[in-house]
Structure formats: C-alpha cells, structure tokens
Amino acid sequence: MTVVAVTVTALLTVASGLTLVRIIRGPSILDRAVATDVLLAIIVAAIATEAAYSRDATALPVLVVLAVLGFVGSVSVARFAVRRDPE
Q1: pLDDT by residue (tens digit) across 60-85?
Q2: Which of 1, 10, 56, 73 ranks highest by number of CB atoms within 10 Å?
Q3: At 22, is the secondary structure helix, strand, or coil?
Q4: Phi-psi region of 76 (alpha: psi -120 to 50; beta: other; left: phi over 0)
Q5: Which domain range does residue 67 map to?
Q6: How far is CA 73 from its chain centroid?
Q7: What is the DSSP letter of 55?
C-alpha cells in the first residue's frame, strides 16, 4: 500500500508542477483559468487520496466545497469570456 501512496503522490506532484507552469506561462487568460481549474481538481484528488489512504471521512465536506468552488469558478470565467467576445 505504501508503494501505491508514493506513486500517486509523485504523479500528483508532477501534474501540479506542470499545471503551475501552464498558469505562469499561459498565453491567454482562458488558458490560465483552465489550468487553475485543473490545479483545483488535482488538489481535490490529493485530498481524496489522503482520505482514502488514512480511512478518514472528515475531509469529505472539504472535497464537496472545493468541487463546487471549481465549478462556479469555471462557469464564471466562461460567462465572462463570452461577454467580452466582440461581435
């Protein structure tokens, strides 16, 4: 079980690093917004992995709040981008 935990941690760390690179070097604001949403999904996956590994369900409300926050943030950015589109 420890090998799986270390492997998942390494994969999530690499994914987070690559996502941070996209946030920093993103050519447009929409790329940065998508990368921020992906980073939030990686954080949710990391918290869920830790909760499953430790068999502790107290992190579930945090996961729900973060998932709703990610959804609302993505929808807000999408609506903002549509309104700014010149016709």
Answers
A1: 999 999 999 999 988 888 888 777 65
A2: 73
A3: helix
A4: alpha
A5: 2-83
A6: 11
A7: T
